[in-house]
UniProtKB/TrEMBL annotation:
Residues spanning the signal sequence: none
Alphabetic keyword roster: Membrane, Transmembrane, Transmembrane helix
Transmembrane domains' residue ranges: 72-92, 113-130, 184-212
Protein name according to UniProt: DUF599 domain-containing protein
InterPro entries recorded: DUF599 (IPR006747)
Pfam families registered for this protein in UniProt: DUF599 (PF04654)
Length: 234
């Protein structure tokens, strides 16, 4: 099957994977150095969890976690639906391939190449599903942890220790969700592969540039960082 796939398609796949891996490594590195949107949000989570310990009424805090979990659950359900649709497309054999040829701008690289593209897209969404469901499970752990939060009259040392660990768990949940959401963006780039390999590579580069700007140079990142700098506590 691999022998029948054009070299340019394989090269485009290599570029796609290289961009994805390099961006992930760079994002993790800069986050560990505290110079990313994720790192800034991590400091806000720490402030949130510390403030939670000083409140008797924590209904608002549980509502916030509930909203986060609903957002994550939506993407988990969507991933499963996409995987089901792609499985149905692969199961249709040549009929599905012939139908897609009627779509404008669709490249005809052969049935084997088409099957490989659909299979890889399905694998990408399976990866997405696992990342997002793991994120959802970690947010469930956050709910349990918040239920065991120290009361306002507890020692400050106990509150600080709880806030540190609770914020860390939330950061891990958010990181898993970010990885799953990132896969959605790169899946959109992979759709360009069905046009041709050049569009695929251009789309992958564009997605990487957009993600990089949003994570490290967006107005949201600067606004959140300025709150951290001005507030002192974060």
């Amino acid at each position: 099957m691999i022998q029948s796939i054009p070299i340019l398609d394989l090269a485009a796949l290599g570029v796609f994977l290289a961009l994805w891996v390099c961006y992930t490594v760079a994002a993790d590195h800069y986050t560990s150095k505290g110079r990313s949107l994720s790192a800034v949000m991590g400091r806000h989570r720490l402030v949130w969890m510390r403030s939670l310990c000083d409140r008797d009424n924590r209904v608002a805090d549980t509502a916030i976690i509930g909203n986060l979990m609903r957002s994550v659950a939506f993407f988990a359900s969507a991933s499963l639906l996409v995987v089901g649709g792609l499985a149905a497309l692969m199961g249709s054999g040549r009929r599905g391939y012939e139908v897609t040829l009627d779509i404008p701008f669709m490249a005809d690289g052969g049935h084997e190449a088409f099957e490989m593209k659909v299979l890889l897209l399905a694998c990408l969404f399976i990866y997405t599903f696992f990342q997002i469901t793991w994120s959802l499970r970690q947010f469930n752990y956050c709910c349990i942890l918040m239920g065991s939060a120290p009361m306002p009259e507890a020692l400050d040392a106990d509150k600080d220790r709880f806030a540190c660990h609770a914020a860390r768990l939330q950061a891990l949940a958010a990181n898993s969700f970010n990885r799953g959401l990132r896969a959605y963006y790169f899946a959109l780039a992979m759709l360009g592969w069905f046009v041709n390999a050049w569009v695929f590579m251009a789309a992958a580069a564009a997605v990487t540039a957009i993600l990089f700007r949003r994570e490290f140079h967006s107005k949201s990142m600067k606004a959140l960082a300025s709150i951290v700098d001005a507030g002192g506590r974060a």
